Amino acid sequence: MKILKTAALMAALAMPILPSISLAATPADILVVAQNIDDIVAIDPAQAYEFSSGEYVTQVYDRLVQYDADDLSKLGAGLATNWVADDAAKTITFTLRDDVNFHSGNKLTAEDVLYSFKRVVNLNKAPAFILTQLGWSVENIDQMVTIDGNQVTLKYEGDFSSAFVLNVLAARPGSVVDSVLVKANEVDGDWGNAWLNANSAGTGAFKLRTYRPGEILTLDANADYFKGAPALKSVIIRHVAESTTQQLMLKSGDVDIAKNLTPDQIASLGSDLKVLEFPQAAVHFLSFNQKNEALQPKAIWEAARYLVNYKGMADSFLKGQMQVHQSFWPKGFPGSLTETPYSYDPAKAKQILADAGIETPITVKLDVINANPFTDMAQSMQASFAEAGINFEIIPGTGSQVITKYRARTHEAMLLYWGPDFMDPHSNAKAFAYNEDNSDDNYQSTTTWRNGWAVPKEYNEATKAALAETDQETRNQLYVDLQKKVQADSPIIMTFQAQMQVAMDPKVNGYVNGAISDFVFYRLVTKQ
Which structural domains are found in the chain, ordered by start? Predict the structure, then answer.
């Protein structure tokens, strides 16, 4: 009994101190969020590359074109009212809004856009590649981005369409900063980087009041926001690393939203709180390395599609964390294929293998990250695949060990996931449907190359055609068609799409959480 008392006392002392006022509602005009934000390295939009910093940038900055809270399925106007694309000349000319001011009161100008792009290229921080893939460099940026009055003309190089370029510009490093304010805070030629990692200089729906790393982010509403002022006065994001503490704070009324609860904690919340589920961009898959001759028969790929117990996993230990998704582009974005034609059918899988003359049993080594839910997924597949005579020998390893082996193409089978670098279907199409040079010395950061799969010419040509297509609706359909091809005939079997559960007080409405952190919006949130 004494030992138990001592342990309980130590546990209590170790817990973070909760606010002194409990069971009291948060202010009606302030949203308080409990979230683990210790991943933030930088909040300068030219450097921010973490999940939590992506959320921050979206609240504070705008881009020429952007996906917005009103409709995440459409790329729409941002700081530009309209644009004209010339795919032959590889240029896009944007006309800026004339009713936009920065938080400082400075008026938005074309010079701000040019400066913002130049600083991304010159700083060359982690997300810079998203813009530099357009053929932009320190040496040519002044020729690639030109201004004339309230118009900005962008040039690009590469075999891709203006539709692709627009999605690139909607990504995080496309954010426009207040050049006058940032220049005034430059130190030793740092393009204001140090200052912008502690301050903000945007046009967004919110402006930064306070940022203390690993502690708090406080955002105040921009009453003059060109799309309308937010309903709330402020948003306070409190860093709370422990999910148990988040759960307690939500139940006590000290926060309005808790973002990092476990499935068990979600299930125990009770009916007085609500939970919203949001599909995320990460897609999970099982793949077979085609450098292994025994895994090259297409019958093995086809049979595998009927040996994954999708529903069984999604309804049990993956409940709330993942949803069945069988295509390479995540649900919730233009161009996604949402059909799920495959289900667990070991009898059908056996017949497919028998018809192809595949002798069973066969043993396949399956590499997996040694953490949940990956090990649980691997064990489920080990049991279900054994029903058709495919015996998985599970090889657990750290994330770095598994990824290193994958990049070296020395695995047999791999259980992993993939997330796009920016929200354009080509980001994943290139990874799952393109590989024109499968040679060992031509390293590519794609699942096709890493699995040694020499993609059929038809798929390669379809990937390039979709990338170059100028009409957005036609382009989306090309990606849907390409996903159908890969879904039916590939050594990479798509299984799930990650899902996020966000718990909140029932009075909170209008919260928007898209498939990536850049698509989190507080602008429409109300508390009623």
Answer: 30-254+516-527 (3.40.190.10), 279-500 (3.10.105.10)
